[in-house]
Structure formats: C-alpha cells, structure tokens
Amino acid sequence: MKKTICAGLFAVLLAPATAAAQAQAPKGLGTEEFGMSPRELVQAIEKTEELIARCMREQGFQYIAADHNTVRAGMTADKQLPGLSEEEFVNRYGFGVSTFYTGLPPQLSTGYNPARVGLGERNVQIFRKLSPADQVAYNRALLGDDVFSTLAVALETEDLSRTGGCTRKALTETFKPDQLKASHYNPQDALINKDPRMKAAIAFWQREMKKAGFEYGHPDEIEPDLRNRLSALTEGGKLLVIKMSQDQKAALRKLQDFERLVSVRAHKLHEEVLTPIEEKIQEELFSRKVQ
Amino acid sequence: MIAKRINVLWAILGVVGGMALGAWYMGSRIQSPAEIAARTAAPEASPILVPVESRVLSSDVVTRGTVRFGLPQPISIAPSTVKGAVGLISSLPRPNANFGEGEVILSASGRPVFVLSGAAPAFRDMAPGTSGGDVRQLEEALARLGFDPGTVDGNYDQKTSGAVERMYKKAGWDPFAPTREQRAAVAALEREWSDAARAQLAAEATRETAVKAVGAARATAEQNTRQAALDSAARVGDSRQLADARAGKSLALEAERARAAHSATAASADVATQVADRALIVLDPRQTETARAAAEAKLKVARAAQRKAKLEADLAIQTAAREAGLADERIRVAEGAVKAARLEGERNVRAAQEQQTLAEFDVQAASERAGRLERELATARAKLGVQVPADEVVFIPSLPIRVHEVSAAVAANASGPVMSVTDNQLSIDSQLPLEAAPLVKPGMKVAIDEQALGIKATGVVETVATTPGTRGVDGYHFYLGVRVETTPVLLAGFSVRLTIPIETSKGAVTAVPTSAVSLAADGTSRVLVDRGGKQEFVTVQPGLSTGGYVEVNIPDGGLAPGQLVVVGYKTAEPAAAK
After folding, report:
1. Inter-axis angle of helices A38-58 and A132-143, to 10 degrees?
2. Computed over its alpha carbons, how large is the radius of gyration of chain B?
3. Interatomic CA distance for residues A214 and B113, integer angstroms
4. Torsion (CA) B401, B405, B409, B414 in degrees, nearest 10
5. Which of A15, A40, A59 has its CB closest to that of B576?
6. How far apart are CA B403 and CA B394, in angstroms?
7. Do residue B291 and residue B431 come from a single domain?
8. Domain check: are B499 and B512 in the same one?
C-alpha cells in the first residue's frame, strides 16, 4: 500500500517535468536539418557556399556559390523524379543509392542525381569544360574523397562526416565540431526517438524488418549501410560501371536488388508506423506540423 | 477510518500536484522585465585580436592547369624495299616509357627500330651508295652516339656502314647484312657484265675485221680502178684500131693485104716464071715431052699456088676485116666490164664501210652496256655493305621522347602509325579569366603546386592567348601556357595549381589583416592596437593589399610584428550553427 502511495506521489511530482519534456521543444531547437531554424539553415547554406567559393578560388578553380534555393533543390531532389511519387520511386529505385550508380562524378551524370542539382547548373557547366585531370582535381578540391557528398546531400542526409575538400573546410567554419561527426544526431530526431511511443514504434519496426530478413536498428541506418556497401564494391565510388568486371557487375546488381527490397519494406513500415507517431510528436514539440 | 485517511491523503496529493502544475505553468509564462531585458540585451562584445605580422605580400593570380608533355606527335614506320614483306610487331613500349637517341623503341619480326634525332622522317632504305639529307641525319646521329661515321657529308660510305654496324652491335642486334636477293642480283649483274664484256670484245673484233674489209675493198676498188685505166687505155687503142679498121687502114688488114699482094706477086712471078720456063721448054724441041709436061705441070702448080695465095690473101683480108669488126664489140664489152668492175669495187667499199660502221656501232653499244653494267655492278657491290632499312629507324626532331599512346598491337603489321610520342618538356595547359589575362605576361614566374601530394614546382609563363576562346578554352577565358622548369617529380597528367605573382612587396613588410585597418574622420588610415587590454588607435600608411592582408607603414615605427590589433568584435554565436 505504502509503495503504491509513494509511486503515486512520485508520479504526481514528476508529472510537470514529463509534461514539460513532451510538450515543448528545447529552446533554440529548429525544425530544419541539424535542428536549425529555417533562417539559420539559409544563413548556414549561404555562408558555407561563399566559403566554398573562396576556398575553390584559392585552389585555382572557379566555383559559383550556389544560392539557398539551389541547395534546397538538391536537398529536395532526394528520392524524387518527375512523374513519380516517393513510393513509386522507392518501389522502382529503392533509395537511389546503388540503383543510380554509374561511377561518374555527379556533374557528369545525366539522370537522377541530387548532388548535381545541389551544385547548381553553372558549376556543372564549369566542371564539364575542364580537362579530365582538372575534373578529378576539381572534385577532390571541392568534395574530397566522396564526390557524392555535396553540401546539399550532406545536409539532406544530416551527415557532414563524409564531406571533404573545400566543402568540409567551409562546413568547419559554419557548423559546430560535433555536427561534423558521423555520430552527430539531429537533436530533434534524438528528442523524437526518446519518446516512448517512438521507441515502441521503432521496436516494432525492428521486429518487422527482422521478419523480412533485414537486421537494422533504425531507419536511419539503412542508407549509410547501403553507401558503405556500395563504396566497398566500387572502390570508394571511383569505379566506373562500364569498367567493372562481370563479377563486380553481378555484385552491383545484387546490391541494387537488396536495396530495392530493403527500401520498399523500410519505406512501407516507416510510412505506416513511424511517420504518424513522428508527426504527432512533432506537433507536440512545435505546436504545428513540421514540413 | 483508514479509508477516510487515505482519501484525505489522495486529496492532499491532488492539491499538491495541481499546485505544482499551476506553479510550473505560471513559471513558464510569467517573466519579469529584468528577465526580458537580460534575455534581449546584446551580449558584451569582446575584441578579436590578431597579431601584426612581418611577411612578404604578394598579389597573385591563381588558376589551375593540367600538366602534359609536349604535343603528341605520331610515329610512323616507313616501308622498306630491301625487305620482302612488312614485318610483324614483336614488342612494343609501354605508355610513359622514355627513349633516348640510339635506343630501340620497338621490334618487328626480330628486327629493331632505332630512335634517332632528325628533323626529316626516314623515308627510304639507306645503304652504301645512297646520299641525301636523311643520310646526313644518320651520320650526325651516329657521330653523336660516338660511332665515327667519317665525314658527315650526306653520303653513305663504308665508314658510315661500319658505324651503323657498330651501333647495331652495341645495342645487341645484328646489323642488316645484304639480303639473298641483293646477293643474287649482284651475281646476275656480274654474269650480265661478263657477257657484255665478251660481247664488247666480239664487237671490237668485228670492227677490226670490218676495218680490214674496208681496206681490202678499197684495194680491190683501186685495183679495179687501175684495171679500168688499163682497160681504158686498151679501149683507146682499140678505138684507134677500130677507127683505122673503119678507115681500112687496119695494120693487120694492111699486112694481110700486103702479104696477099706479095703472095699474089710472088705467085704471079712464079706463074710468069713457069710460063717462061714452059715456053722455053715448049719452044725447045730438045726438051722432052716430059719436060714440057713437067713445065706445064709446074705452070699449073704455080698457077694453083697463085690462086691459093690469092685465096689465102682474100681469106686473111676477110679474117682481118672480121677481126676489125669484132674489136668494136670487144671495146664495148671491155668498157662495160671496166664500168662494172668499178661499180663493183665501189659497192664493195661501201658495203665494207657499212659493215665497219655497224661494227663500230656494235662496239659502242657493247661498250656502253658493259660500262653501264660495270657501274651497276660496282653500285650493287657497294650496296652489299651494312644498310639501314627504312623500317628500322625513326627520326624524331627532339629527344628524348616519352611514349604517349600506343596505337599498334603486337603481331600487327609494322607499317604506318604505331604510336604517338611527346618530348620530355612538361607544359601546362591552363586558362585565365578575362579580368586576369591582361595582368599575366609571358616570362612571368609561376609557382606550381599539387596540394594533395605536397608537390611544389616552378615554371614560367610561355603563352597568353591574345583572344579568348582559343585552344580549347571557353569564350570567357584566355588560354595560358606554362612551361615547367623545375619539378621534383614528373607531374604529367596532374591537375596543378598555378600561382602567378603579379605584384609583390620587396621582402618582408609589416602587415595586418585588411579588416584591422579603418578610416579615421580626418581621412587617415589607422589600426586599433591592443596594449595589455587597453586599446589605442595608431595611424598607419597602407601599402600593398593582397590576400586579406595590407602592408602598413608607421613613420615612427610604433607597430611591431607580434603586437595585437583588433579586427572585429566577437558576438554570441547562434545555438545551432556558429
């Protein structure tokens, strides 16, 4: 009896704190990537692009700082193709990680490529006029080892750790050091993931995925895993598909099939299980639906 | 009782909980003016200090370029006529392989292809006896390689042949000896020349015979001429005799007539004698009848003799007359014979002369043929030395070379273009923006670096295009060509950064960040110097400004490297981003 009374008293005393945690987001937490507000994101993009342009100029390359809209277009181009809904895109191309891989740098690709969109058409044209050696050096100067981790892609995936070159140099001046690490997690997402409802939903998601034969702890683990597998298969994304051996092509096809399967299942579960809860929690956090 | 107490306790807990919620809600909503002021007040700014530096300021044009060797030029193998067929490539160099003069760049059908320096390409086989610019190139190359080719005169002589042989042997290859066909051709020439020499001797013998024949013909003609003269004289005599005959004054005829007259006279005298004798006898009775008969008989005999003499004289005269008549005929015959003999002699002489001419022509033709064959034989024999087939040497204007791209494959025909090469001079193709192009001039020094590998090199501006859009750059850039002068590694194929100093300070100068310089109300430039927490404006004279730094000159030297100047003020950073 006493235990019950004490538990009740503890619950009553803890209720305000719990209510506070669930009812309102921490001060300064925005709804955009990396927990930034829309204004902060715009400022960060503009400043980063300016620093990238300056860095590239110091390297002897011409780079036109992309405006916020261009970078935002690159971010929103993720899993988007004209005439296809996101579900149709996922059904056909998975998450678009290995299914669109050609080995070409983003500026030379012609199909779906959010990285190319985020760089801006002028920079793409500048790149295409360079000699092959200069193109390699240009992307190395701009992007480092991972030529697909442009600013737009890094922001969209909220993973700045894969960036390199002038992009990373600029990001170090516009983002905090912990935000540049692979271990960094969006505070908003972290907050949502701490929610018991989300925890339960993720546990359900894990079980369902496991039943389908996929061992993932969180939906955010899938795309990095696909990128790592693709990177291992393509020598860090530098191997052209047309130069692949038959075995390598077979392995790539296998990875693409795997990506489609895991993407379809994960996307369906995400939309059915996680998204409703996430939106509900976001509404509670920000008193509105986050776009 | 207990239940009542419990209900009271629950009520108390409910009240406490409600009060807690109310207090929390009120606390989150109510803010004091001081809190609001404190929250919205500008943070206290702190100065951002940077040290004054002593550094070399340089205004640079920075661009990128791709390093390459010289422009690729194709290497073609010319077909060789001394070889029966085109060889098959048996070994090829790898791209980026370097070759110097005298080295073997590839092999075909077991034969080497040497690289030699020369402006004109190899276009024919070079063998003893050939001469020309290509041979001169060969001799010059041999001389550079230390194989003495004798006088460098463009003539492939035995010394050249020996030098070529030494070059081949030093490279580990057998020199190209005369082919079986060449030796067979020489042997055939030798046979032909031998036949021609014999034919020449035969023709000369024929000519000698013809010369003698001409002499003989001339002698015969001369003899005939003499004979003709004799015949002519005879003809004159005969003509005179004929004339005499015609005039009846033929000596023979006259002689016969005289003899006939004499015989007639003698016969008449004998007859008269016999008549007289018979008359004496007849008139002398003492004569016997026999004597009379004898006298009579003698008379008859005399008369018979007289008649005989007359007949014989007539016959002799007739014979002489007939003989005289025949003489004219014989003269004509003799004249014809003389003429025929003369014509025959002349014809014989002409025939002999023609034979001599033909013989001399034959001698000349035979001599010319023999001479020609002798020269050809000498040439062919001279060509039997070591030679350089056209497909065993390639002349390159500038050495050493570097293989750029190999277009031929092993086992392919060693003919025509097989690869492209470049020289070893590193150049950089780059471009300049429109606004930077006028600042860059040929001859300017260029700092070259490849940051990823930490490579630093130096170069010099070689070309700045005068119009944009040339040599592969777009219409908004000028082509920039840079020649690499010193480099620790071969940068071919690398994309490098080019830094071209346009204006530099003369040595290290005192410099501060541009943001540290501000403009005072009186128009002077000044920097805010931090002196142990206390800040003080110092008037400066700005100089060259580049790279975010500006040169500052202070008349009294009141600013030293290491001192701190204010470049701005630090404010609170955003929560999410810096």
Report:
1. 140
2. 69
3. 63
4. -40
5. A40
6. 14
7. no
8. no
Structure tokens at A130: 């360079």
Q: Are residues B563 and B428 in the same domain?
A: no
Asked if residue B361 and residue B234 are part of one domain, the reply reads yes
For residue B387, the distance in angstroms to the closest alpha carbon of chain A comes to: 45
B341 and B479 housed in the same domain: no
Contacts of B126 (CB under 8 A, 6+ apart): B134, B135, B138, B156, B387, B388, B390, B393
Same domain for B447 and B326: no
Interface membership of A44 toward B (CB under 8 Å): yes
CA atoms within 13 A on the CB side of A48: 29
pLDDT digits (tens, 9 = 90+) for B378-415: 877 777 788 899 999 999 988 888 898 899 999 998 88
Interface test with B, best of A10, A131, A136 (most B CBs within 10 A): A131
Altogether, the residues listed in chain A come to a count of 291
Check if B33 contacts A (Cβ < 8 Å).
Answer: no
Last residue of a domain, one of B467, B483, B504: B504
Mark the ranges of chain B whose per-residue pLDDT is less than 50. Answer: 574-578
Nearest CA in chain B to A41: B577
CATH number of the domain where residue B484 is located: 2.40.30.170
Domain span at B441: 422-504
Nearest to B65, CA basis, from B463, B432, B490: B432
- Measured between alpha carbons, how far is B90 from B414 in angstroms, rounded to an integer? 9
How far apart are the CA of A41 and the nearest CA of chain B, in angstroms? 8
ipTM computed for the complex: 0.72
The β-bridge relationship of strands B401-406 and B73-77 is unpaired
Helices A38-58 and A165-174, axial angle in degrees (round to 10): 140
B495: closest CA of chain A, how far (Å):
5
Residue B15 belongs to a domain: no
Question: Is the bond into B574 cis (omega within 30 degrees of 0)?
Answer: no
Give bridge partners of residue B419 from the DSSP assignment: B75, B406
Residues present in chain B in total = 578
User: Based on the domain organization, do B493 and B544 belong to the same domain?
Assistant: no
Write the DSSP assignment of B138-163 as a string of letters. HHHHHHHTT---SS-SSB--HHHHHH
* B292-351 residue pLDDT tens: 787 778 778 878 877 887 887 788 778 877 776 776 677 677 777 777 777 887 888 888
Residue among B13, B21, B28 minimizing CB distance to A9:
B13
Disruptive mutation site among A59, A125, A173 for chain B (greatest number of B CBs within 10 Å):
A59
